[in-house]
Each structure stands twice: as structure tokens, then as C-alpha cells.
Design goal:
Elements: H1 8-20, E1 27-31, H2 37-46, E2 54-58, H3 87-96, E3 103-106, E4 121-126, H4 131-141, E5 145-153, H5 162-175, E6 179-184, E7 187-192
Parallel strand pairs: 1-2, 1-4, 2-3, 4-5
Antiparallel strand pairs: 5-7, 6-7
Bound molecules: S-adenosylmethionine (SAM).
Length: 193
């Protein structure tokens, strides 16, 4: 398994943002959970809030094909099929740490249906790396996000993955009145007004 863990500073920021949504109605979702390393950090924090379910989504087939929006000189290492792990790897990690079972759904993001998604969301971590993956994640989360809810998008300031910022910028251009926007480390943080 390759080392794609989110650095500690960023996980600290993600947890701090998650804590801000403790009193917002809705569940917690991660689009692009890979081996579940950040998922278990979210789950550990959610032990303080057992009414909230954690939903994890991934192809478990690795990354999809890039589009033109993802091309970057530094991006040679992110190829289709990279970052492939099994759902069992994630489930086992939760068991080993005695964390409550999350809902784990194996699917390409664009194939997720209403039945796969919680009706109400308070916090979302989007970590699908590529333009189309972040764009479709936003499309799935936004209609379900409650006021005060937070979306954290990984890789906004990662020059190797320019599609993440492109998808977020297009979204904010269309929804600037509805979201507060700021950056922290490589992360974009969108707070629904
Ligand atoms: C960088 S990894 C996620 C890392 C994880 N969030 C962590 O912190 O350990 C990106 C993941 O997104 C998944 N992914 C990317 N685009 C996807 C898509 N369109 N549909 C489903 N999964 C996707 C990949 O399979 C990969 O596991």
C-alpha cells in the first residue's frame, strides 16, 4: 500500500472543522476514503456524538482516468487504478481500533443513488483527487448539507492535483452567496450560511 496519508497538520484542521459541526443536524461523509486512515480519525471524534453515522465512499478500484483539468507536470504519479484497496482493509481497520462500524459503499461517485447517501449531512470530507471526482462529490453533498454544515476539500493547494481547485472554484463562482470560503494548509473549507 502506498503512503498517501494526509499530513498530521491537515488532519488536525479536519478534526477541528468536524468539531464545529457537532451541533448541526446530519451525518458525516467522506468521498474517497482509500484505506480509511483519515476515516478512523473522523470516527474517533464521532465517538463523542454517537447519533451521527459515518458514510465512506470509494470505488475501491483506485483512481479513475484523469481529464484534461487534472494534467500537471507534478501529477505524473496519479494514474488510473492507483490507490486500490479493498473494503475489507477499511472495515478491518475500524475493528482493530474498536470503532463503530461505518457505512462503507463501493461505487464510483457518479453512480451513487439517493439510497446510498444520508438524507441530511453536517460535515463532508472530499478527497477524490481529480476534477470530475470533486465536482460530482459536491453535487452529491450540497443538496443534503444543512446550514452551518462544512465541506472540507483536500488538495485545493496541491499543484500536482489542479482539478481539485478547479472544481471548487467553479462551484464557488456559482454559489458565492451561499457559502463562506477559506483556505487552511492545502485544504479548502466551505461553510454553508
Ligand atoms: C487520496 S485517496 C483518499 C485518501 C483518504 N481520504 C485518506 O485520507 O487516507 C483518493 C481516493 O479517492 C477514490 N476516488 C477518486 N475518484 C473517485 C470516484 N470518481 N469515484 C470513487 N472513488 C474515487 C480513489 O479510489 C482513492 O481511494
Amino acid at each position: 500500500m502506498k503512503d498517501y496519508q494526509i499530513p498530521t497538520r491537515e488532519t488536525d484542521i479536519i478534526v477541528a472543522e468536524l468539531q464545529k459541526t457537532a451541533d448541526i443536524a446530519g451525518d458525516v461523509v467522506e468521498f474517497g476514503c482509500y484505506a480509511g486512515d483519515t476515516s478512523v480519525i473522523l470516527a474517533a471524534e464521532l465517538k463523542n456524538n454517537p447519533d451521527k453515522w459515518l458514510y465512506l465512499y470509494d470505488s475501491f478500484e483506485g483512481l479513475p482516468e484523469k481529464t484534461a483539468a487534472d494534467e500537471a507536470p507534478q501529477g505524473w504519479r496519479f494514474q488510473a487504478g492507483e490507490l486500490r484497496v479493498s473494503e475489507d482493509t477499511v472495515a478491518h481497520k475500524f475493528k482493530k481500533l474498536s470503532l463503530p462500524d461505518p457505512v462503507i459503499k463501493k461505487a464510483w461517485f457518479n453512480e451513487l443513488t439517493d439510497d446510498d447517501l444520508p438524507s441530511s449531512i453536517s460535515f463532508a470530507l472530499l478527497d477524490g483527487d481529480f476534477y470530475e471526482s470533486i465536482k460530482v462529490s459536491l453535487e452529491k453533498v450540497v443538496p443534503r448539507l444543512n446550514p452551518g454544515g462544512i465541506i472540507v476539500v483536500h488538495d485545493y493547494r496541491n499543484p500536482a492535483l489542479p482539478g481539485s481547485a478547479k472544481a471548487v472554484n467553479e462551484f464557488m463562482d456559482a454559489h458565492a452567496d451561499e457559502y463562506d470560503f477559506r483556505l487552511a494548509a492545502t485544504l479548502a473549507i466551505l461553510v454553508k450560511k
